[in-house]
Amino acid sequence: MLLEVVAVLLVQIFLVKGDEETEFVTVSTDIGTITGLKKATYSEFLGIPYAEPPTGSLRFKPPLPVQQYQDFQATTFGSKCVQLGMFGEDAGKPVGDEDCLLLNVYVPVSDSTSPKAVMFWIHGGGFQMGAAQDYHPRSFLAEDVIVVAVNYRLGVFGFASFGNDLVSGNMGLRDQIEGLKWVQKHIHHFGGDPSRVTIFGESAGGMSVSALHMSPLARGLFSGAIAQSGTMVMLREDAKVSKNWRTTQAIAYDFKCNTEYGEEMLKCLQAVPALEMLMGTQADIDPESKKFERSGSFPTSDYFSSDPVLPYDPLTALTLGEFNHIPLITGTVKNDGALLLGFAPLFGTVENYMKKAAGHLQIAGSTNKSEITASEELEADIMYQFYTGRSTNMSINQDGWSDMFTDVFFQNPDQKLAEMASKHVDVYNYVFTHKSENTFCQMFGLPDNSLAPIHGDDLLFQFPDLMETKYNEQDEGMARVMLKYWTQFAKHGAPSPPGQDLPTWNKFGTQKNYLDLSAEPEMKSNLNPSRHLFLQRIIHGPREAGIGEGSLAGSISDSIVDAINNIL
Predict the structure, then answer these.
(1) Which of 242, 287, 324, 437 is spaced 20 to 30 A from 420 at the CA atom?
(2) Pair 462, 483: CB distance under 8 Å
(3) Into how many domains does the chain fold?
(4) How confident is the model at residue 285 (pLDDT cuts 50, 70, 90)?
């Protein structure tokens, strides 16, 4: 291995315009050379194709691995996947290209010649936006790990389904799997160890990590997983009830295509220009709109496929132990759900927002809002009462609203995942509690920073280039703590190997241990027990007891409402 690494990391120096000198690094692979840029402390290889462009007849189809590089110049970022811009001058504008199945490889310069652990980053953005190039991993590189960041198809391009093998959906996940296959085949040329690959991601990236953790198609492609503020358990829809391929049929109708799930419909949709497809498939937040009925673009069980990415719904997979048995870190940010306080006003009044509340709170079996059952609406109303007292003003009792969104979307699913997965594998759980002036609060529409830390704030201590960060001493300590735990996990399969200088991070176990992740981390147990017991009874209890769709709301209402009134 040493001779191979020395042979392939050939540095070539070229002169460019002006007096500046640029150093290039050329790596030889089995399918051609890849030339990147050499910096002072690391090398970067940007915009490397890992699959053929999913355009034309390959739109909505599984990715095909790249066949040949020739002499590929990996010195600039490629295109983002098709999406609407969210920030800055691109906000609300269509950006990107379908030819976007690219990844970036960052290799630290170090004295060690041993193969390095690899961390495979999956970006967030609600499966609608984001790109690998938005995240520079310079902080991780200082800990002597290789980082690979991947693009994957978003929105309808990544998650449209026909409910059959012609278009089985979950193409965004299949892209991530293809990226991991690329790592297994080629990362050793960059000095990486393919037997030590840790996948990690935040928000939709965390959900992707969770999905890959449950996917038989990803088996053997990674050795550890870190899901930050996102798990598949947060999607409580029943794929057999939702039948979200009906959304694709509605899209076909809008574009005047055949609406039978066959070749004619597929070819018509493949012919629609990409940006036209993007703009024609944007979600509508008006509860009276027909488009509001449509399922969103996100991973779901493709149980009907002959080669499924997710053959089971998440709770079934966890119950049966049908997931990849590798160590897992999973956790949330203290006030993850405060993010939604900034977005909720887009729906108008609180009363308007709470229409079809079971859909908003993702506790319904169907993502088609007209199919929400009376019992599901009752569950949502009980939750609304428990957390907010049916407040009609989110600025009053904003802590209650934030707790509701945090628990329903993030912490309760996270705790459920940790509880069930820990019966089969080592699970390390955390809650990020560090409060800082470096926060996304105001970017997400909140009036001040009082609810920090909120969703995404942990990223500012991993990828400080995301915004203009100014660390104080406590912030520097927080960044050090987080990076050490994350990279120790990648290197050793546990965040607290012998000899490390941080407090020991104990496994979740039967005590429900979790790390209070701050500049001075501390082990605690049994996170927010009363709130999670409440949601266990409301969300999981009735269904586990066989009460669900088709049951009369009155059959569960008396006992639950009486219990909640006693609590209140």
Answers:
(1) 242
(2) yes
(3) 1
(4) low
| Residue 246 domain flag | yes
- At residue 355, the pLDDT reads 67
Average pLDDT on 305-311 reads 98
Is 170 contained in some domain? yes
The 3-state secondary structure of 83-116 reads: EEECCHHHECCEECCCCCCEEEEEEECCCCCCCE
Residue 98 confidence (pLDDT) above 90: yes
Give per-residue pLDDT as tens, 381-414: 899 999 998 888 888 889 999 999 999 999 999 9
pLDDT at 287: 66
Residue whose structure tokens are 């927002």? 353
DSSP-assigned states of every residue in 483-533: HHHHHHHHHHSSSS-TT-SS------TTTTEEEEESSS-EEEES-SHHHHH
Peptide bond connecting 453 to the previous residue in cis, omega within 30 degrees of 0: yes
> Under a CB-based contact definition with an 8 Å cutoff, are residues 394 and 342 in contact?
no
Say what the pLDDT of residue 229 is. 98
Backbone φ, ψ for residue 34 (5° rounding):
-130, 125
Q: In terms of residues, how long is the chain?
A: 568
Number of CB atoms found within 10 A of residue 282's CB:
13
CATH number of the domain enclosing 127: 3.40.50.1820
Backbone angles phi, psi at 352, to 5 degrees: -65, -40
Dihedral sign for Cα 300, 303, 308, 309, please.
positive
Question: Is the confidence at residue 338, as pLDDT, over 50?
Answer: yes
Q: Helix (H, G, I), strand (E, B), or coil: what is residue 332? A: strand
Q: Which burial class, exposed, middle or buried, applies to 534 when counting CB atoms under 10 A from its CB (0-12, 13-18, 19+)? A: buried
Q: Predicted confidence band at 516 (pLDDT cuts at 50, 70, 90)?
A: very high
Report the mean per-residue pLDDT for the chain.
Answer: 89
**For the segment 27-84, what is each residue's pLDDT rounded down to a tens digit?**
999 999 999 999 999 999 999 999 999 999 999 999 999 999 989 999 999 999 999 9
Report the C-alpha gap between 85 and 342 in whole angstroms: 18
What tokens does 50 get? 């890992």
Please check whether residue 450 lies inside any domain of the structure. Answer: no
Is 226 buried (19+), middle (13-18) or exposed (0-12) by CB count in 10 A? buried
Q: Is 363 inside a domain boundary?
A: no
Side-chain half-sphere exposure of 490, counting CA atoms within 13 A:
29
Range of the structural domain that residue 250 is part of: 39-326
Integer Cα distance of 556 and 559 in angstroms: 6
The structure tokens listed for 44 are: 């970067």
Q: Are 323 and 317 in contact (CB under 8 A)?
A: yes
Q: Decide: 45 and 105 in contact? Cβ < 8 Å.
A: yes
Tokens encoding 450: 């009082």
